[in-house]
Amino acid sequence: MARRPPQTMIMLALGLGQTIAFASSFYLMGVLGDDMAADLALPPTFVFSLMSVALAASAVAAPAAGRWVDRHGGRGMLLVSNLVFAAGLGLVGLARGPVLLTLGMIVLGLAMALGLYGTPFAILVSLYGGQARRAITGVALIGGLGSSLGFPATHWLGQQFGWQGACFAWAGAHLLICLPLGALVIPRHLDGHMSAHDGPPAPVVWDRRMIQLSVLFAGAWFISTCMSTHLPRLLVAFGLSTTVAMSTAALVGVAAVAVRALEFAVLRRFPPLLATRAATLMHPLGAAALLTFGKAAAPAMALGQGAGNGMLTVAKGVLPLSIWGPEGYAYRSAVLGRPAQIAQIGGPALYGLAIDRSPTLALMGGAALCLVMFAMTFGLNKDPAT
Known about the structure:
Layout: H1 7-23, H2 28-40, H3 44-72, H4 75-94, H5 98-115, H6 118-128, H7 133-143, H8 145-148, H9 150-185, H10 208-237, H11 242-249, H12 251-265, H13 272-293, H14 298-324, H15 329-357, H16 359-376
Helix pairs in contact: 1-7, 1-9, 2-3, 2-9, 3-5, 3-15, 4-5, 4-9, 6-7, 6-15, 7-12, 7-14, 10-11, 10-14, 10-15, 10-16, 12-14, 13-14, 13-16, 14-15, 15-16
């Protein structure tokens, strides 16, 4: 049997793949959407709404992808995802009207279901079982650079080669970097529970703990998507100039990466539920500071949102493993994540309407949702029947 590559090498390969995957899908429209709309003579609202179409396609496909990974392992799925990412980006780059552009975004959504965090985390669980927390944190830490590096990289590519050229460049990155790197580094025969020879996976039962975790993650992803779209606008409503609000909002990414590094170095020694519980309080603490001290506390708001979101991304990979173990991990994680993906679709529009009505009430509503998430972290270690 071939010698397994060092864990650090596997983390670096999967993490780099996630950085490229997020930069070329989840954050693509935020940089190129206006240029696409102007060049194709399409309403900007329509172009940006295609991200919701991609998220909907991802939500539909994710459970089937998770079940396949549980039965056959994640290596093949991750490699196929690179091909699907490249195909979707190629279709977007070739688009000269709304039909091909929409089709390309749907394909990108399918690629997100196949290749974003769920599949790499499942690969790590198959390799390391219940000891996968450190590796999951490492991949989330590197993958968190998808926005920090992706935004400027996509902007530069767009300036040099146009939005079509930027799409083709990211497609090339999947084919020339992610695909060969994954094929070389990820073990061909994965150890652990995920094997086609282990028989059908145990059924996933929607017990109390499943419901609690789904509410927790749906709330987290709702808040995260709303903040990624509206945080600068929210800060402007509390008295910041547009320029200062944009630079302050950039602290979200800094805090997310920093807290994942802290989790990797220190917090992984503590029970994951404790870290998750603390994470749900970061956004409300920042909101309380902003409501109490006004625009002077805007950095606290951004740092609180970033820290909480950074920790919850790790929790999304670690909590199902710590509660139920490796059996059926990929499918269970995909099912748990479907409400979160649905919440992402409508979140920005709903939060935008709330800000139009009252920025203060919008801020308080988001903080209240985080407190509901905090309540969902209790009782997760107990048997559902108790």
